[in-house]
Every structure is written in C-alpha cells, then in structure tokens.
Amino acid sequence: MKKISPWTWVPTLYFAEGLPYVAVMTLSLVMYKRMGVSNAEVALYTSWLNLPWIIKPLWSPFVDLLKTKRWWIVNMQLMLGAGLAGIAFTVPADAFFQLTLAVFWLVAFSSATHDIAADGFYMLGLTPHQQALFVGIRSTFYRFSTIAGQGLLIMLAGWLEETTGRISYAWSITFFILAGTVLGLWLYHSLLLPRPSADRSSGRIQAGSILQGFAQTVVSFFRKKQAAAAILFMLLYRLPEAQLAKMSIPFLLDPADEGGLGMTTAQIGFSQGTLGIIGLTLGGILGGIATARHGLRRWLWPMVWAISLPDIVYVYMSYALPSNLWTINACIFIEQFGYGFGFTAYMLYLIYFSKGNRQTSHYAICTAFMALGMMLPGMIAGWMQELLGYRLFFVWIMVCTLATFGVTALLKIDLEFGKKQ
Questions:
Q1: Among the listed ranges 22-31, 115-124, 235-244, which one has the minimum average pLDDT value?
Q2: Does residue 196 surpass a pLDDT of 80?
Q3: pLDDT digit string (tens) for 164-186?
Q4: Is the CB of residue 43 less than 8 Å from the CB of residue 245?
Q5: Distances, alpha carbon 158 to alpha carbons 34, 151, 272, 303, 355, in Å
Q6: Which of 159, 299, 357, 415 is most buried, by the most CB atoms less than 10 A from its CB?
Q7: C-beta of residue 57 within 8 angstroms of C-beta of residue 364
Q8: How far apart (Å, rounded) are the C-alpha atoms in residues 78 and 184?
Q9: What is the Cα–Cα distance from 147 to 170, expressed in whole angstroms?
Q10: Distance of CA 75 to the CA centre of its chain
Q11: Domains in the chain, ordered, with CATH?
C-alpha cells in the first residue's frame, strides 16, 4: 500500500474534531441568545449538551469492539454534516428551540464518538516518534477550528444579520456553511485517510468482558491515592469559569438598559472568537513553557491566581459599561490569557493523577469529571444572573474563586512532576 503522509490527514482530522464541538458549545449559545431565548434557558439547556462528553467513557469500549476507528471517523463526520444541516433547516421553524436542540443532541453524541475514534486512530496511524512530532500540530489545528467557529462563523452570522435584517436566516446560512465544510472534510477523509494495519475490529471480544474491564477500571480509579481531593479539584477548580462561560456572551450582547454592553454579533466574533482565542492560546503556551522548566508544583499557585484574578474584568465592565471596543477587547484578552495560563495546571494535574496502570482509561474518567464540572454550574448560571443582575452575578463569580483556591490547597504533587529531566 502507498504510504500516506501524516501531514495529509492529522491537521484536517483535528480541524474536523473541533468544529462540531464549537458548534454545540458556543454557536448554540450565541444563536439562541440572538433568537430571543432567555439567559436561564440558554444556560440550562446548552449546559446539558456537555453530557455526551461526560458519559463517553461508557461507550468508548464499544468503539474498540465494533468496526475500525477509520470507519467510526468517516461515518461520524457524515452524521455530523447531516446534523449541522438539520440545524440549518430547523432554525427558521416556529418551534426552532425544541427542534434545533434535539438535533444539537445528535451532533453532540456524534462529536463525542468522533473524538474517541480520532484520538484512537492518531495512536494507531502514527509511530511513537510521529505522535510526539505531531502533538503540537493537532493542537494547533484544533485551535484553528475554534477560531473558525467562534470567530469567523460568528462574524459571518453577524454580517448576515445586519445585511439581511433576518436573524433566523443569518444563522441558517451560517449552519449550512458549517455543514458543507464538515461534509467536505468527510469526503476528503473518505478518500485520503490511511488504513493502518493496526486499526482492526476486536469483534471476537465479548461485550461482557468489556463491561467487566470497565468496572475494574472505575473501581481502581476511586481507589487511587488522594482520589477524593482529586475529584473535588476536577469539579470545582473551574467553578467560576463554568458560570462565566455561559453568561459572558449574553452580557456582551444585552443592551445597556439590561446591564449589558450592547455589542453586535460580529463584534462578539472578533472579541471572543479571535482575540480571546489568541489570548487563551498564548496563555496556554506560556503555561506549558513555565511548567516544563520548573515543574507543576512551582507554578501551581501562580496559575491559580492567573485563572481567578482576571475574572474581575467582568466586574469592572458590568459597572463601567465601557463603549470603547479597545477597552472591551483588552479586558477579554486579559481574562482569556489568564484562563489559558491557569488551565495548564488543571490539565497537567489530570495527567499526574492518571499515572500508573490503566492510565488511558483513568484519564478518560478525569475528562468526564472535567465536563461534569463545567455542566453543573453552567446549568444554574442563567438563573443566578437573572436573580442577581449582571453586576452582582460577576461579584458572585469572584466569590466562587475561593473554591478554586480551596480545592487546590488539598493537592499533593511531586516536586519534579512536569519538569524537564
């Protein structure tokens, strides 16, 4: 068989992995807000969409059991393209909220399944050396998909809103374009995704043995040292951000008489989806360099301050209500840069806690707790905001940073972990 260069499929595979996730987590939030759905409903129902990523360890063994990783990737991309087109068709309907939400659930489950298959295929299709070489490439193209979704597509939707005067039409066209992009990637991968010999179905393994192995994995996870402290850390370290993530965009969109900044959809796309993602990426890169040089324990508390203190820019904006876009953009950049830097500690601790036997499976359980830690606080964020108003809500966010500091104080980390040996 002719060898296929990883450059032909690793970047596109992880670009394809990021697009549906952005659609479910961010585009849905902006679209529903622009379509007049209340903050409480937006936060509650879009938070529930985290569920497939929380429970994906439950069906990940069956992705190994049935068919090949390549089969799952190609078929999930086809389903994702069809699902995103379904959203585009149902946005103009009278019952758009119920209909699009149902399709978003389909997209979310398909996207979570695609993640399982893509990550497994990456390890099967590359040698260990290539895996190390391309880990930065896959992360970069995943970030590109975030900029394309949160930035360019939201800016496009905003431009269409302004030029057509029809919000539902604007978002329908936006999702048609996104669906076309994903279907184009499906066609590309159908033809050019390699067929590694290691990518085989394990059909001879009984489903019962898979479930038994999963049960043993879960039991061993909860028996690890410091399991209780680790789970509290996974659930509460991002307690402020979980709520802020759901209400930052509504705050930026709502008019001044409702306590918001009155930004347009296109301005949101540039501020949050472009400058914000750049700040997030730079913060993450700097965090990785810092921990690689001195270890996680050395930088743990600076990262806690970095992920917590910049949230205060939203307190400032809610009281000052700045109209200058440079000021708003600077505030968003600072908050996202701090989040990117502080989030490094979180991800490294998940790797640290997963060390040992069944490391891959334990890490999957950690990411499930990570998603749960974002879903539960996000569900009540809209209700809290409507109860308190934006100003007191952002003050409440700062109070929640105490939980971040509290759960971090429970951790015990080896001095050398993360440091270059």
A1: 115-124
A2: yes
A3: 999 999 999 999 999 999 999 99
A4: no
A5: 10, 11, 13, 35, 45
A6: 299
A7: yes
A8: 9
A9: 19
A10: 22
A11: 1-205 (1.20.1250.20), 210-421 (1.20.1250.20)
Q: How far apart are CA 179 and CA 291, in angstroms?
A: 39
| Highest mean pLDDT: which range of 71-75, 121-125, 276-280 | 71-75
Q: Closest by alpha carbon to 70, among 188, 173, 239, 194?
A: 194
| pLDDT tier, 377 (very low <50, low <70, confident <90, very high otherwise) | very high
For residue range 111-147, list pLDDT tens digits in order.
999 988 887 888 778 777 776 667 667 777 888 898 8
Q: Single out the residue of 339, 330, 331, 328 nearest to residue 374, CA to CA.
A: 339
Percent helix / strand / coil, the chain, rounded to 5: 80, 0, 20
pLDDT of residue 210: 65
Q: Under the phi-then-psi rule, with left for phi > 0, alpha for psi from -120 to 50, and beta for the rest, what region is 36?
A: left
Does the structure show a pLDDT above 70 at 103?
yes
Q: What is the dihedral of CA 326, 329, 335, 340, to 10 degrees?
A: -130
Tokens of 339: 């989040």
Long-range pairs, 79-82, Cβ under 8 A, ≥24: 79/106, 79/110, 80/20, 80/107, 80/110, 80/111, 80/114, 80/182, 80/186, 81/179, 81/180, 81/182, 81/183, 81/186, 82/179
Higher pLDDT, 121 or 306: 306
Q: Which residues contact 289 (CB under 8 A, 6 or more apart)?
A: none
Q: In the prediction, which pLDDT does 130 show?
A: 73
Kindly state the DSSP code that residue 152 receives in the 8-state scheme.
I
Of 403, 285, 415, the residue nearest 352 (C-alpha) = 415
- Please count the other Cβ atoms lying within 10 Å of the Cβ belonging to residue 56: 20
What sign has the CA pseudo-torsion 184, 188, 190, 196? negative
